[in-house]
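May I ask for a protein sequence together with how it folds?
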Amino acid sequence: MDMIYEIRRRHLVQKQTITAIARDMGVSRPTVRKHLKTVEEPQYVREHPASPRLDQFEEQLRQWLTDEAKLPRPRRRTAHRLFEGLQEIGYSGAYDSVQRFVKRWKSNHIGPKLTEAFVPMLFQPGDACQFDWSQEQVELGGIIQTIKVAHFRMAYSRQMFVVAYPRETQEMVLDAHNRAFAFFGGVPARLIYDNLKTVVDTVYTGKDRQFNRRFLTLANHYLFEPVACTPASGWEKGQVENQVGNVREWLFTPLARFASFAGLNDWLGTRCKELAQRSHPAHSLRTIAAVFADEQPLLRPVTAWFDGYVEHMMRASSTCLIRVDRNRYSVPASAAGQAVSVRTTADQVRVVAQGEVIAAHPRSFGRDQLICDPWHYLPVLEKKPGALRNGAPFVAWDLPLPIQRVRDRILKQPKGDRAFVELLMLAGEAGLDALTVACELVLEHGVVSAAVVMNELRRLIAPHLPAAMNNIPDGIALTLEPLANCQRYDHLLGASNVH
């Protein structure tokens, strides 16, 4: 525009000729004539740079973008993930070419994104950690399912920790904090949350909140300050909000496949440490791990593990069962019909009565499942031995093979049900290993009956006399030892001959 102004000024004000202007300014006369007619600022159209290496992959990239536009936003790949996909099929060009192509395609097919303004945040070492949940899809045990992932982010060092669960319940929240503090090696001064129901019971005006009592027990145990964001103001914990999208891209795209939650969570913990080797956004010459190494000593040490259970009072049924999340768990027969305390954690169901744990089961997240401990029903079998054949706890009881073989033989004998129940009652005191050995001994001899097994089992568990018992003190020795009289046998033999 400066050149246009100078040309027009010289010709229209100073009355210079076109030839003189072209000679003085070093431009051609056609250029001078064109600019003399220019009044508005010229608009220049920028041509897109050529990307010869991308040309043969544009159709594939366009197809991916078209297909993924139909998916929910969390499942769409970013430009960088698309770039990695192209590399796998032979693309050797630069990432910038892919990024420009994706940007142009989205602006033409999706439209420009509106940019919202935010306030930059600054945190001190050891001060704050941000928490959030995300929903992801994985393949566990060959089944694609939707899971919940708990995200933690140290606000100063950017060190992250993620752990996966089947659900987003309070016991999962408590367990996730235990795992996060163990991973970080300490507890920050504050934790920042959304107003999720497992943490906040009531939202009042401003920052005033009524936190859940069980969650406050966790906070009191670890002595951190819970802070809830303003409703619909996720930018107050923007780091972890951004982490949710990054983790989905880094760890869950493409679909993660594992045999169980244990394997998935072990891998997630390892990946959190590997990703900490990236450059820190505020300290570009240092890694996140190095900055966290400076922050970690400022965290409050963990002195004891928090027992993160959620408690409910229930009444055990006449079939010695309690119900948790549409699944049934057994309790000892002595608790049938009584009120018990059921404590659920992320991976266990514990039943407490009179201050003692009377039953503990691994937690199941299926539906309409029956989880039984056969030993809970032994007192019932003593009165109802017929239940041994069709009772649900005993039909699915995976006993050692020797015991199964002996059981099948005994149940075919008269009153075999009651006889085998007596063996189980004794094994309840002696242990299943002792009964297994007794059954092996009986099978070796070939004579299988409940009495023989009982005899072998009692011999195995009978206490051995200590060696000191063989040394009899002199004070209790016999003063008059009896004499052997073999004539008695002769007398008996003689009497038998008379008859």
Observations:
- Residues 378-461 form one domain.
- The first helix runs from residue 2 to 12.
- The mean pLDDT is 87.
- The chain has 20 helices and 15 strands.
